[in-house]
Amino acid sequence: MLKKKCYTCKKVFEIDHTDLQYQKIKANPNALYICKKCNQSMQVEAQLNTGLNPDMIDKHTKFLK
Ligand SMILES: [Zn+2]
C-alpha cells in the first residue's frame, strides 16, 4: 500500500495494486500521482480542448515530473 498526494486536488490517497498507477508509482516513487477522479476529468477536458487521445495524458505527466 502506497500513500500519494494527488497532484491536482492535493488529497492523499492510498494506492493499492488495483490502481492502474500503482506499478508506475512503485517503480518511481517521485512520479506524479493523479487520482482516478482528477484523471477522469483531466482526460475529458483534454479531449474537449485538444481532441488528443487520453493515453497522451500519461505520457505528458512523465515529463511534468
Ligand atoms: Zn485528485
Q: Helical proportion?
A: 40-55%
State the major sheet: 2 strands, antiparallel
- Tally of individual helices: 3
* Helix-strand category: alpha+beta
**Mean residue pLDDT:** 82
Query: What fraction strand?
Result: 5-15%
Number of domains as seen in the coordinates:
1
Report how far apart the termini are. 22 Å
Order of helices and strands: EEHHH
Strand order of the largest sheet: 1-2
Report on the architecture of this protein.
By secondary structure, the chain is an alpha+beta fold. The protein has one domain (2-64). 48% of the residues lie in helices and 12% in strands. The chain contains three helices and two strands, in the order ββααα. The protein has helices spanning 22-27, 36-50, 55-64, and strands at 2-5, 12-15. The chain has a two-stranded antiparallel sheet with strand order 1-2. The radius of gyration is 12 Å and the shape is elongated. The site of zinc ion has 7 residues, from helix 2.
Question: How are the elements arranged and paired?
Answer:
Blueprint: E1 2-5, E2 12-15, H1 22-27, H2 36-50, H3 55-64
Antiparallel strand pairs: 1-2
The structure holds zinc ion (ZN).
Zinc ion binds at residues 6, 8-9, 11, 35, 37-38.
List keywords for this structure.
single chain, 65 residues, alpha+beta, 12% strand, binds zinc ion
Quick take:
The protein has helices spanning 22-27, 36-50, 55-64; strands spanning 2-5, 12-15. 48% of the residues lie in helices and 12% in strands. It has 65 residues and is of the alpha+beta class.
